[in-house]
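Design request, tokens follow.
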């Protein structure tokens, strides 16, 4: 049986002092002021919290970001059965993949939409917010309710954190990684857009063409091409191209809609992968449409098929996130090994000041 827990969290709640080595951030580009402050000040509660922090099997899997990004991922993880829980093969075994795990959702209601920061030229403020949201899930100290600041409680410390928003790779990921590296915090952080790009480029040679289908807002703000180029550089892939078009959830055939846009724009290079960065789209339906197209390469199907490479694949956000979490948990032995249904806890992120985020109880409207 699923279990709700509603608590108020604070990232500054740890009181026990831990030893520090006074490390400095070694960066090739400047981090935000918050990161520099935390790393340089050994008495800073956030420094104390993160210094040498390691993930534990009894911790929680945290999904952090806008409700539209977090809620669908939360539901997917609660029902996921993509893997054999004995040997890890990518095959359903009739058992939930995350049995006994605590899925903790952090809905950033106050900070969204993230596009407002970019419209106002506040990129550093958005980077700071995303780092603060991440820090807030690392603590185990919490308050019972949003108005009961004296009632103390505990919650799982994050053993894996998923920064669900596609804005984070450009606005916060570098800062968060620099902070965790400087303080030897080994809690894994997943950036789904990075994971999807890495999956799409895996096994591909130079010159790969990656398509991305996303919402109008993300297409104008996220800067997909820059993220793809950066990941390609890190993976040693040359000549990688990125082509992105907006999704239209009113259409029944999102794959064909994307290919129509691709052809109409005059592109002639074969696509090697299509990343679905819109959780409102049905990835299974798109894969079914792809199978149908490949089975009958006549008429329009031939035209569309000619735009796809032999190894073309559809990379789905939900599946990618579940796979990455499962892989990390197996590699680091982070499963609780409890035979029970996954539980969930829901929180709302609240910015207390420019450098602190607390979490209060939250309940989805459709529950």
């Amino acid at each position: 049986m699923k279990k709700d827990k509603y608590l108020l969290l604070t990232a500054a709640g740890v009181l026990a002092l831990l030893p520090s080595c006074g490390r400095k951030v070694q960066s090739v580009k400047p981090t935000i002021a918050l990161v520099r402050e935390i790393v340089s000040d050994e008495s800073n509660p956030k420094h104390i919290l993160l210094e040498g922090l390691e993930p534990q099997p009894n911790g929680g899997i945290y999904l952090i970001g806008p409700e539209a990004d977090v809620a669908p991922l939360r539901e997917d993880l609660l029902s996921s059965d993509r893997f054999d829980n004995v040997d890890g093969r990518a095959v359903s075994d009739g058992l939930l993949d995350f049995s006994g795990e605590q899925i903790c959702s952090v809905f950033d209601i106050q900070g969204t939409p993230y596009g407002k920061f970019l419209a106002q030229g506040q990129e550093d403020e958005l980077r700071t917010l995303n780092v603060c949201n991440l820090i807030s899930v690392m603590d185990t100290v919490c308050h019972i309710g949003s108005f009961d600041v004296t009632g103390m409680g505990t919650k799982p410390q994050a053993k894996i954190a998923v920064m669900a928003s596609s804005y984070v790779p450009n606005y916060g990921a570098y800062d968060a990684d620099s902070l965790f590296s400087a303080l030897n915090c080994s809690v894994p952080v997943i950036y789904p857009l990075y994971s999807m790009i890495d999956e799409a480029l895996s096994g591909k040679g130079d010159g790969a063409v990656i398509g991305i289908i996303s919402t109008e807002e993300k297409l104008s703000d996220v800067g997909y091409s820059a993220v793809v180029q950066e990941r390609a550089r890190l993976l040693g892939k040359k000549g990688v191209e990125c082509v992105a078009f907006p999704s239209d959830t009113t259409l029944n055939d999102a794959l064909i809609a994307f290919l129509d846009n691709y052809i109409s724009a005059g592109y002639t290079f074969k696509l090697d992968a299509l990343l679905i960065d819109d959780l409102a789209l049905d990835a299974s339906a798109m894969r079914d449409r792809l199978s149908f197209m490949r089975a009958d390469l006549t008429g329009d199907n031939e035209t569309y098929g000619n735009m796809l490479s032999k190894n073309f694949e559809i990379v789905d956000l939900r599946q990618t996130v579940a796979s990455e979490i499962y892989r990390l948990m197996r590699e680091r032995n982070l499963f609780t090994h409890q035979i029970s249904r996954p539980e969930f806890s829901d929180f709302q992120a609240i910015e207390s000041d420019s450098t602190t985020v607390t979490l209060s109880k939250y309940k989805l409207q459709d529950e």
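Comment from the thread starter after seeing the answer: thanks! The two ends are 15 Å apart (CA to CA).
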